[in-house]
Design a protein that fits this description.
Structural class: mainly alpha
Number of helices: 15
Shape: globular
Helix content: over 70%
Order of helices and strands: HHHHHHHHHHHHHHH
Strand content: under 5%
Number of strands: 0
Length: about 400
């Protein structure tokens, strides 16, 4: 059943609630599955440096399918694209449950996530308008971070109890996400009639890349979000090795609790950004980006749980305040130029390329035997300098 245009512009419409619920379940499954699969690798005695490789096959799927998923999101009703993508995630999680190679199963989940992302963000511009888009992004990010919070903890705690049970719960949650997608209204196709031949599809995608990277505002957004998510996923794996080194704790649950603190902070920061930042004042988020790197630097030097929790909450708050306005800017400008789905696909290419590079460097550093505390200090310093350089470049424009 279609909703009217007037209903779709409401932040609390049936469509927005269905999207938010589906996103919560899908993100819950993603985060629980990561920690459950990491526990499986640990139980089967895979080397430490292979842990980031698990995430690298996931983000590799984003990069490989980037030229196609934006067009898919814009050529079909986005709610149905989200349902198909969650079905792929369900298949990947179930395959790990049944003993298939975890890297292959996690690659399937990555393909589903690659197809899911342009649709889940692109649909926001179809359900909301204007400055409500920033608030819709805040709602989406809050739902995502709540899922990260609960999913990460659930994955770690269940894995400490029984790894197979943790993997089974992940599969069930993905099944719930598929059901939730059924309640998303069937909206008009954004860009019908596009060619499905390989050459025109890739040409269209790379044209969208050129358009967005040549525009000063969208380039600024792409660079900022790419650095943020590359750093975020690296921090997640850094925590897995930092906990036993700095705190002497070897269970699966403690790193998930620490990740949850970042999630709590991002919810607060996203809410603050929705109230304090508009599309015309996006640059207000840049000091928060610099302080993220400073926070990681000080966090890496801690040897007690309480200050570690406090610093991670602060890092999360800064992260939410930093990334939500940049996402909204890209969606609004992208919708006006190349289509929201294509804009998010280009963003995914940038973000996941940054993730792949940062995870690759992190994996090499671990394999080379560098101390995890030193890795954290260097990582935080470089991130702060990179965001400061981006802000300086933007101000000069």
């Amino acid at each position: 059943m279609r909703e009217s245009v007037h209903t779709n512009t409401s932040l609390w419409s049936k469509g927005m609630m269905a999207v938010t619920s589906a996103q919560f379940l899908s993100a819950f499954g993603d985060n629980a599955l990561l920690f459950a699969t990491l526990a499986l690798l640990k139980a089967e005695f895979y080397p430490d440096w292979s842990q980031p490789i698990l995430q690298m096959v996931f983000v590799g799927a984003y990069i490989i399918f980037a030229p196609f998923v934006g067009q898919v999101a814009d050529s079909f009703p986005k709610g149905r694209v989200m349902m198909f993508a969650n079905s792929l995630k369900l298949l990947g999680a179930a395959s790990i449950c049944f003993g298939f190679n975890p890297f292959i199963g996690y690659t399937l989940v990555g393909i589903g996530a690659a197809a899911y992302s342009p649709a889940k963000y692109g649909i926001l511009g179809e359900l909301t308008t204007g400055d409500k888009l920033v608030k819709a992004n805040g709602l989406m990010e809050s739902s995502t971070i709540a899922a990260i919070l609960l999913g990460s903890v659930a994955g770690g705690v269940l894995a400490d109890w029984h790894v197979l049970a943790a993997l089974g719960v992940c599969a069930l949650v993905y099944a719930g996400a598929v059901v939730a997608n059924l309640f998303i209204p069937t909206l008009p196709v954004a860009r019908p009639g596009q060619s499905w031949r390989f050459t025109p599809m890739t040409a269209s995608f790379f044209n969208a890349c050129r358009v967005l990277w040549r525009n000063g505002e969208t380039r600024f957004s792409l660079m900022g979000t790419s650095m943020f998510w590359g750093a975020g996923v690296t921090l997640r794996f850094l925590l897995v090795l930092w906990v036993p080194t700095a705190l002497g704790i070897t269970d699966n649950a403690t790193p998930t609790y620490l990740n949850a603190m970042v999630a709590v902070g991002i919810v607060v920061g996203a809410g603050a950004a929705a109230k304090l930042v508009t599309l015309e004042t996006v640059a207000r988020c840049m000091p928060a980006g610099i302080l993220i790197g400073v926070g990681v630097l000080f966090f890496s030097l801690q040897h007690a749980l309480l200050p570690a929790y406090v610093l991670l909450i602060l890092i999360g708050m800064l992260g939410g305040f930093f990334v939500v306005p940049l996402n909204a800017l890209l969606q609004e400008r992208g919708k006006q130029t190349v289509g929201a789905g294509n804009a998010i696909a280009v963003q995914n290419l940038g973000e996941n390329t940054a993730m792949l590079l940062m995870l690759g460097l992190y994996s090499l550093a671990v394999k080379a035997g560098l101390p995890v505390v030193g890795i954290g200090v260097g990582f935080g310093t470089l991130f702060a300098l990179a965001i400061a350089g981006l802000w300086f470049w933007q101000r000069r424009r």
